[in-house]
Write a structure and sequence with these properties.
Layout lengths: L10 H9 L3 H15 L4 H15 L8 H11 L2 E3 L10 E3 L1 H22 L13 E9 L11 H12 L12 E7 L3 E8 L12 H18 L4 E7 L3 E4 L16 H13 L5 E8 L5 E3 L5 E3 L6 H16 L4 E5 L4 H14 L2 E4 L5 H13 L4
């Protein structure tokens, strides 16, 4: 992958000019993007940063890339491994940088959603299970009178009628907005089969960004929710939030059934009533694990032996009251037909997502599912 294919010019550089941020902060934002694309490889990301510096003149003699690396060390974003070799091979990103990458992904994705009016997790319900989210809204019938903010309401009255008469009206009243504390257990399945980087299109990086952003949102804003992340190729396995920046595609087929089995096993153990599976995939199911442990593989079209097993798993999840939402990053009509059949078997949902709106779709779906009891 060439660094020239990474969309970090344009908005990034012009935005830094406007905000007058420090040289370190400017490079740090670009470096986070590069680390996401290189799956957390510090050396490769630095090499790309040096190439970008040559092309876009990111630094000058007062602050160089080497100065930036020293600051990364001093700030704890990278660490030095003793006894692993010499030079730059000793450096790798730290847990602080892993956290920074999740926050970076959340800001990139969730920030766009807030601007478009989506993904804000509000609900009309109130009660003991609600808690404040720091925003205000107009008072509506059903809102608790105790939640009325008199200072803000009086300000509204004064803006409307001036400082003469005391004329407080219902339209002036505002309350602290809140959202329902309905606990949700989510399993996010990410396809890491080889097709996620085929045809010159990087599909795994957007999926990885969504996983990092969603994990950061849940752990910080919805700490009572649970999020488990599964990757599936020939097999399926759970990965930790800590390992998300390092996620890579492998030379794998797509064993959707293995992923669904593992996801349902996880959710069976969760005590929450609200459970869901979110699946990001771009390819057709092309692999099954046989009873003897060997694989049955077929990449030529849709194999009924494989697809029928997928339908069975979808029905099992439906019986367990686990809806599956599929985010299909593909436009092939025959694959979309499979997804429609799979979704009907589960009574779930399907989105035919582009890479640009994948994050918005997933965040919006997460919000809507939290508003209702499944």
């Amino acid at each position: 992958m060439s660094f020239l294919n990474i969309p970090i010019s344009g908005w990034f550089f012009s935005n830094y000019e406007k905000n007058k941020i420090s040289p370190f902060e400017k490079l740090l934002e670009i470096f986070k993007e590069l680390l996401t694309h290189t799956s957390g490889d510090f050396n490769e990301a630095i090499d790309w940063l040096r190439e970008l510096d040559k092309e876009y003149k990111l630094t000058d003699e007062d602050y160089t890339i080497d100065d930036f690396i020293n600051d990364l060390l001093e700030e704890g974003y990278i660490i030095e491994e003793i006894g692993s070799g010499e030079g730059k091979d000793l450096l790798k990103i730290s847990s602080k940088m892993e956290k920074a990458l999740r926050k970076f992904a959340l800001k990139k994705i969730f920030g766009k959603i807030k601007k478009s009016g989506k993904g804000n997790h509000k609900t009309k319900y109130s009660g003991n299970n609600n808690y404040e989210n720091g925003e205000l809204k107009n008072y509506q019938f059903g809102d608790s009178v105790e939640n009325i903010l008199m200072t803000e309401s009086l300000k509204n009255m004064q803006v409307r009628s001036g400082f003469g008469d005391f004329d407080l009206r219902g339209e002036d009243l505002v309350v602290q907005d809140s959202y329902q504390n309905a606990q949700m257990s989510t399993v996010l399945m990410i396809d890491i089969s080889h097709s996620m980087i085929l045809y010159g299109e990087d599909r795994i990086t957007p999926a990885k960004k969504v996983a990092m952003a969603l994990s950061e949102l849940i752990t910080t804003r919805y700490p009572k929710d649970s999020l488990d992340i599964i990757v599936f190729g020939n097999d399926a396995k759970v990965i930790s939030i800590k390992n998300l920046p390092y996620l890579k595609v492998g030379p794998y087929h797509t064993n959707t059934v293995a992923g669904l089995k593992l996801a349902m096993d996880i959710l069976r153990r969760r005590k929450n009533n609200n459970k869901q599976i979110l699946m990001i995939t771009d390819g057709k199911p092309s692999c099954l694990t046989l009873s003897d442990g060997n694989y049955y593989k077929n990449s030529a079209g849709l194999d009924p032996k494989i697809t029928n097993k997928c339908y069975v798993m979808a029905k099992q999840a439906r019986k367990l009251k686990i809806p599956i939402t599929t985010f299909m990053i593909a436009q092939d009509p025959y694959l979309q037909h499979f997804v429609k059949e799979f979704t009907a078997a589960n009574n779930g949902k399907a989105f035919y997502a582009g890479l640009d709106d994948l994050g918005e779709m997933i965040f919006d779906d997460y919000e809507n599912n939290k508003k209702k009891r499944i």
